[in-house]
Amino acid sequence: MLKISDLKVKLEEEDKQILKGVDLEVGAGQVHAIMGPNGSGKSTLSYVLSGRDGYEVTGGSASLEGVDLLDMEPEERAAAGLFLAFQYPVEIPGVGNMTFLRTSYNAQRKARGEDEVSAAEFLKLVREKAKDLKIDAEMLKRPVNVGFSGGEKKRNEILQMAVLEPKMCILDETDSGLDVDAMKLVSDGVNALRSEGRSFLVITHYQRLLDHIVPDVVHIMANGRIVKSGGPELALEVEKNGYADLMDEVQ
Ligand code: ADP
Ligand code: MG
Ligand code: MG
Q1: Domain residues for 90?
Q2: Closest by alpha carbon to 59, among 95, 29, 21, 31?
Q3: Is ligand 1 within 6 A of the CB of residue 41?
Q4: What is the distance in A from the centroid of ligand 2 to the CA of 84?
Q5: What is the pTM assigned to this prediction?
Q6: What is the number of domains present in the chain?
Q7: What was the pLDDT predicted at 90?
Q8: CATH code of the domain containing 215
Q9: In this structure, which ligand is nearest to the CA of 22?
Q10: Which residues pair with 31 in a beta bridge?
């Protein structure tokens, strides 16, 4: 599904190399987790994959189902099936969340050469998805992200994911405010959306999240590289011993 080879990235504005050769392959239907010390480049990886400005790829490749991602505009990546949670963190007063979500949905359909859906059809679709996920869709009537609580942002994120039906979902749970309730929302949402044709990359420093979303593979990222990969037990090892032991091991 996702194949990243020797990906090297620096900041556009500064001569600072952040990713120093990342290798990662996520198979269809798999859930991979990335853990690692602060500043190791986890968020940078997700930003570069989604096409955010400010980064320069200096080497390597990243593809989705064999198609080069790095050459595409962010919208094209989304249409190809890539989803980055919090790709729309901006508050947009005056624009209803539902309208915004429908615009994204229709933009993706259009990019794939499919017909747009009407407001009424879309409402029906969203209600069904929300019901499946036991999410209250009321917040969709409010302006995009304006005054959303942490929990509402998480609900919104999961609902966006359910509606847009991406193939490759990247969740960067960078938010230190991920409390027990938010963690449950995220893990229930991901588990409900797990399927054969959909893969997840979950970036987290909360081992506990991985008690609920049991990953197929856990990767440890440090200093701009994936330094170790293993099964779910690797997350427990990190929880118990911290990163220091692992770092000694790989150096
Ligand atoms: P992580 O998510 O693993 O904590 P990040 O990807 O956020 O790590 O950051 C990796 C490194 O790159 C850090 O040293 C961070 O300070 C730096 N960095 C990332 N983006 C920027 C930026 N836009 N400007 C300056 N430094 C940045
Ligand atoms: Mg950080
Ligand atoms: Mg981060």
Answers
A1: 2-250
A2: 21
A3: yes
A4: 17
A5: 0.91
A6: 1
A7: 65
A8: 3.40.50.300
A9: 1
A10: 200
